[in-house]
Amino acid sequence: MATHTEQLTRPAVRLRGLTRSFDGRTVLDSLDLDLPAGQFTALLGHSGSGKSTLLRAVAGLDHEVTGSGRLTAPERVSVVFQDSRLLPWQRVLDNVLLGLDGKEADRKGREALAEVGLKGREGAWPSELSGGEAQRAALARSLVREPELLLADEPFGALDALTRIRMHVLLRELWERHRPSVLLVTHDVDEAIVLADRVLVLDHGRIGLDLTIDRPHPRSYRDPLLGEYRERLLAALGVTEDHQ
Ligand SMILES: Nc1ncnc2c1ncn2[C@@H]1O[C@H](COP(=O)(O)OP(=O)(O)OP(=O)(O)O)[C@@H](O)[C@H]1O
């Protein structure tokens, strides 16, 4: 089995010169992106800086983006969004299994639901779940597909602060166990530094800062040594102390 270090040398994503404009306005400007296999990366940027556009490009969902390079095969990519996108007319387990069938899939689906803390809720309807539970189900739906690359677009953005912290712990645990490459889009600097081993800042269509967060996990928001990373990220985002 490959060690973590060996895994990191194999890129899941290596993109060069990604360019995307909308109505003559350049959002991605010849951007280069490397995501080593098995790395947990967060992507920060101001609202409208192009984070979702980049994520869609990496997911292979944008057919108008130009550039070259290597993408993970689409069947090995899972995407989680801010809203769970569960189908309201399907029960939780059926939502998780969507498109998969057979006994083995059923077993894996139940296992994934147990992993995210939803054991016993397999037969519930999405409308019976809280926001946090729905996001857990969305994570289970991703997990069951054993993704090489997990793309998450502000997956906790709509959750209350306490639920968000519990989801951070869960996501990191799932990552430790399965080791997909993760690209987490967020506007929350603390979320990025607590969860990710590397944080990218999108700025004027390019990666403005590429910061490795060299602190052990689990991390605490209160860790004073994370403060230095926070300062650097806020500075890259153009946020000064006066704005805080
Ligand atoms: N389909 C589209 N048509 C036209 N403009 C678009 C489209 N998708 C994105 N844009 C524009 O591209 C820019 C970047 O959008 P994007 O959603 O990628 O930003 P973002 O960084 O994810 O923002 P936020 O943090 O607010 O979600 C925005 O100005 C947006 O209006």
Automatic annotation (TrEMBL):
Residues 13-229 form the ABC transporter domain. Keywords: ATP-binding, Cell membrane, Membrane, Nucleotide-binding, Translocase, Transport. InterPro entries: AAA+_ATPase, ABC_transporter-like_ATP-bd, ABC_transporter-like_CS, ABC_transporter_ATP-bind, P-loop_NTPase. The keyword Acetylation does not apply. SMART domains: AAA. GO terms for molecular function: ATP binding; ATP hydrolysis activity. PROSITE patterns: ABC_TRANSPORTER_1, ABC_TRANSPORTER_2. It comes from the Bacteria. PANTHER family: ALIPHATIC SULFONATES IMPORT ATP-BINDING PROTEIN SSUB (PTHR42788:SF17), TAURINE IMPORT ATP-BINDING PROTEIN-RELATED (PTHR42788). This is Sulfonate ABC transporter ATP-binding protein. It comes from Streptomyces resistomycificus. The lineage of its organism: Bacteria, Bacillati, Actinomycetota, Actinomycetes, Kitasatosporales.
